[in-house]
Amino acid sequence: MKMFMLKSIMLASLMFISVLFGMQQANEGIHKMKGYEDPEFKSAFTIKEEEDGSIKSAILGNDVSSHDLEQKRKKLEEMKAFNFFSSIGKNLAEGTSYVIEKTVDLLTRK
């Protein structure tokens, strides 16, 4: 189960990176087709180093910083929202794993 989840996460990450790469390639193709540089076209993913040494990144023109992510994480922790469907899913997954483990143990015993 852990390997399946790891493979799924890796595949989703690869797909996300591929989409960003494809958007960047399409943007460069538009520049080449147009024949001149238009300042209104922006890269899909940009990283800039500021004069003070800090690094700023942007995805699709929206600034992304670790500070924003930290605020969102804190807000989610403060909410401590109970998700009924999530708890049912966890219990179902645990139950299924238990049943499969016991079945495999019974089949592999001699």
Could you describe the 3D structure shown?
The protein has about 110 residues and is mainly alpha-helical. The chain contains 3 helices and 3 strands; from the N terminus they run αβββαα.
Over the alpha carbons, how many angstroms does the gyration radius reach? 23 Å
Q: Helical segment tally?
A: 3
According to DSSP, the number of beta strands is 3
Strand content: 5-15%
| Low-pLDDT runs | none
Main sheet: strand order: 1-2-3
Give the fraction of residues assigned to helices: 55-70%
Helices and strands, in order, run as HEEEHH
Q: Could you report the average pLDDT, rounded to the nearest whole number?
A: 80
Largest sheet report: 3 strands, antiparallel
Summing up helix and strand content along with how strands pair, one would put the structural category as mainly alpha
Question: Span between N and C termini?
Answer: 25 Å
- Give the CA-based shape: elongated
Keywords:
mainly alpha; 110 residues; elongated; 3 helices
Write a concise synopsis of the structure shown.
It is built from three helices and three strands; from the N terminus they run H-E-E-E-H-H.
Question: Helix and strand layout, with pairings?
Answer:
Layout: H1 2-34, E1 45-49, E2 55-59, E3 62-64, H2 66-79, H3 84-108
Antiparallel strand pairs: 1-2, 2-3
